[in-house]
Amino acid sequence: MKADVCDGGMKAGVCDGGMKAGVCDGGMKADVCDGGMKADVCDGGMKAGVCDGGMKADVCDGGMKADVCDGGMKVGVCDGGMKADVCDGGMKADVCDGGMKVGVCDGGMKADVCDGGMKADVCDGGMKVGVCDGGMKADVCDGGMKADVCDGGMKADVCDGGMKVGVCDGGMKADVCDGGMKADVCDGGMKVGVCDGGMKVDVCDGGMKADVCDGGMKAGVCDGGMKAGVCDGGMKADVCDGGMKADVCDGGMKAGVCDGGMKVDVCDGGMKADVCDGGMKADVCDGGMKADVCDGGMKVGVCDGGMKVGVCDGGMKADVCDGGMKAGVCDGGMKADVCDGGMKADVCDGGMKADVCDGGMKADVCDGGMKAGVCDGGMKADMCDGGMKADVCDGGMKADVCDGGMKADVMEG
């Protein structure tokens, strides 16, 4: 289809018949590279790569995406499900045999193992360790920072030297700390805590949760509802008189009615409602799931029935959804999504990235930003006439053009 060759510049590729093949021995990226940073090899599927020492390697024989790397940073293997990662020494390892996600890591930072429940972590030397044999989640750590052990209930924490310690013998969760930062004790109800000198204290005698603190950082009092907090000078204060949650604070950091601060929560019947007319974030929901409204801050959203809707006329991100999964329109910010029926569509006329998809899977369009693409039928097509990367680029660094097949590179200079 096309071949790029560069033996000292930024990218080098050689295509001998298949979809794409690149070889770069000194530049920034190399396709079909067995020791460098990335290697791509595709024999018919979507994208396929094999990296046996570098940073990332992709191998896909029919599924969505599959990474395989036995020494680098990430390794994945996908045989039919959604995604599967396998790493025997690196940072993360996932293995999925049919369920949602399964991982096994015997030395790295995180390891997931799920045989039927929702998620299970197992790691015998890293930061977190968990074992789930039937319940929802179970963590076990014998020396690290946190350790959970659940034998029938929902969650149980046990740690005899670290930062947090919990023991739950029947209820939902129980924490016990004899000198550390937090201490919870549950004898039958949902959660009960008693702390006589630390940072936080929980006391619940029948309701769901109750916080009481007369000088520390947080203080709450629950008399029957779900949660109730009262703070007259501390950092956070919760006040609930019947609904789900209500925040009121007239001097601290967070307050259930804030007219200029950072965040404000106000709920009159729905799930959650935030109103902020000058701060950083504001949520307003009148019936749907969540709605954000902000006319000058960082994020703004308005939801009138769908799942999530955001509108931002100058901030960083803006989402607008009229029925599909996610839709956004951004006329000057960093990213904007617009989707009228397909999976995802981005449109940005000056920002960093913009995607426009009218039927295929994904399409990028940007006339001055960093990346731009246009896909008219195939899987993906990139086009950029001035930015950093350009698909169909006539003088820049790289150019991709797809007119029907999977992916094609075109470079005139």
Span between N and C termini?
A: 17 Å
Oligomeric description of these chains: single chain
Strand content: under 5%
Main sheet characteristics: 3 strands, parallel
Could you explain the architecture of this structure?
It is a single chain. 0% of the residues lie in helices and 4% in strands. Strands 7-8-9 form a 3-stranded parallel beta sheet, with no helix packed on it. A two-stranded parallel sheet has the order 1-2. With 413 residues, the protein is mostly loops. Residues 1-413 have low confidence and may be disordered. It has strands at 11-12, 29-30, 38-39, 56-57, 218-219, 236-237, 299-300, 317-318, 335-336. InterPro entries: Serralysin-like_metalloprot_C.
Keywords:
Serralysin-like_metalloprot_C, 413 residues, 9 strands, two-stranded parallel ribbon
Quickly describe the structure.
The chain has 413 residues and is mostly loops. Among the domains are: 1-32, no CATH class; 206-249, no CATH class; 330-413, no CATH class.
Topology (elements, then pairings):
Elements: E1 11-12, E2 29-30, E3 38-39, E4 56-57, E5 218-219, E6 236-237, E7 299-300, E8 317-318, E9 335-336
Parallel strand pairs: 1-2, 3-4, 5-6, 7-8, 8-9
